[in-house]
Specification:
With about 475 residues, this protein is of the alpha/beta class. About 20% of the residues lie in helices and about 25% in strands. Helix 7 packs parallel to helix 9. The longest helix has 12 residues.
């Protein structure tokens, strides 16, 4: 398989000929398993997923064996596909992400509106004034988050994402010395796949915590694979449970959401870390997470999205045009394989937060920081694209899980924030400003995001600054 740097070199040396492929729309490449040694993708059927996912037998677990699952339609993850993990060191990390300019650390913003307490960064009333009606579901008795993870298709989607699953598999089964005879805690265990990896890697015992009804099926899957003596499934919220042991040696969890922090499952992981993880030798998988942003051109989609509402079935819905782009778009920009989409990223990328998951505090997920991007081509900046990387560093064989547009597809895709007013730039022009990210007051699993945009051009007039509010929900 080509390295990321080889992909870049090939693209720069051999420009694409013939008609440029069109972007595949919202949802990007919906491929299945990535063929070994190739760059083609092939969808995988639900049947083959159950039978073959990471060599774990799930074929005989049927709905008749367990508690019926209440049917709900709202989910917290979108449809996804597959890819492959990147076990590599720092040298390979540089190759994997083009245009990344490494910053020393995130610089706290001093811009008005981005300082002080996180509660002051984002005004829900101001945001709602941009909308016609707030349609937020506000039934406190209904926990849509855990309800959504009771459905089978969301777990099938995550198992099909081989970037995600293989990253954990390589980090766990590829480091058996780290897991031998260790007590492991798996938070948000789902089908139990990560717990099974840990047991196969030699863990003394694994405690798999899952609050959704999928926990009942996880027990059957674990039993079916002959690991019931090694893995105990505990159904309930992490904070409400009492583990049968005073401490654990390793915590594993796939807690990440869109733009890394959507869903806020990290709160539970940090709570468990403080209560149960061995203070001297304990390990977390992953143990580091970073968010990156870059400027991109996506004017055609932005135009189509706004035009859509002007006439639907001879009904004028143009009042919706101001609302359409207030929620960021979750989509995959396939710069890894598609030259056209590669060229749509028109600036370098910068890291806006770097979380040390072993030592960070819960409040660190709320942050405000400065950023500066530099255009490397003559183009128009119509959006900011964001993604995250997770690192498994405190292991003999390190692994990096990347959701970058320069890496293969993951079900997290990328998060795209559209500007109200796009700006034409030339190579060398800059876009700087501040970005604030915090958990929403109305629903802590959602994210409030605020950007300021300050364009500085070499040969143009002074451009007024913009400030925009977004909700990731």
């Amino acid at each position: 398989m080509e390295s990321f740097q080889e992909v870049i070199d090939r693209r720069e040396k051999k420009p694409q000929t013939g008609p440029k492929p069109k972007r595949s729309g919202r949802g990007g490449n919906r491929g299945g398993n990535r063929e070994a040694g190739t760059t083609s993708y092939r969808p995988k059927t639900a049947t083959s997923t159950k039978a073959e996912a990471s060599d774990v037998d799930m074929s005989d677990v049927t709905a008749e064996q367990q508690v019926p699952v209440k049917q709900e339609q709202r989910v917290t993850r979108r449809q996804g596909g597959a890819g492959q993990a990147h076990p590599e060191g720092k040298e390979e990390e540089k190759k994997r992400t083009p245009h990344v300019r490494k910053n020393k650390s995130h610089i706290p913003s001093e811009e008005p509106g981005f300082t002080g307490e996180p509660s002051e960064w984002f005004d829900d009333i101001t945001f709602k004034k941009q909308l016609i009606q707030d349609l937020t579901y506000n039934d406190e008795k209904h926990d849509y988050y855990f309800g959504s993870y009771s459905h089978f298709y969301i777990h099938e989607e995550m198992l099909k994402d081989k970037i995600r699953t293989d990253a954990y598999r390589h980090a766990i089964e590829g480091n058996k010395d780290d897991f031998k005879d260790k007590i492991v805690l798996d938070i948000g265990a789902g089908t139990g796949i990560l717990s099974i990896f840990a047991a196969r890697a030699g863990a003394k015992h694994v405690y798999a915590v899952e609050n959704a009804e999928i926990a009942f099926f996880a027990r059957e899957i674990i039993k079916q694979n002959g690991l019931e003596s090694k893995i105990t499934v505990l159904k309930g919220k992490m904070e409400d449970l009492v583990l049968p042991v005073p401490e654990v040696d390793i915590i594993i969890s796939e807690w990440m959401g869109y733009f890394l922090l959507y869903e806020s499952m990290l709160d539970s992981v940090l709570w468990a870390r403080d209560k149960y993880l061995n203070k001297k030798t304990g390990k977390m998988l992953p143990d580091r997470a970073q968010i990156y942003i870059a400027g991109m051109e996506d004017e055609q989609y932005k135009h189509n999205k706004q035009r859509f509402w002007k006439n639907q079935y001879d009904v004028d819905m143009s009042i919706m045009t101001n609302v359409a782009l207030k929620e960021p778009c979750i989509d995959f920009l396939n710069a890894y394989e598609d030259q056209t989409q590669y060229e749509s990223i028109v600036t370098n990328s910068v890291k806006i937060v770097d979380l040390d998951l072993v030592h960070m505090q819960k409040g660190d997920v709320n942050f405000a920081t400065q950023y500066k991007l530099e255009a490397h081509s003559n183009q128009k900046i119509s959006a900011i694209i964001g993604w995250f990387d997770c690192h498994f560093e405190n292991l003999k064989r390190k692994v990096v899980l990347s959701t970058s547009p320069f890496a293969p597809y993951t079900h997290w895709k990328n998060t795209i924030f559209y500007l109200d007013k796009s700006q034409i730039v030339q190579a060398g022009d800059s876009l700087s400003g501040s970005v604030a990210v915090k958990q929403s007051k109305e629903n802590y699993r959602e994210l409030d995001v605020k950007f300021s945009f300050h364009f500085k051009t070499k040969n143009g007039p002074q451009i007024p600054a913009q400030t925009q509010l977004y909700k990731v929900r």
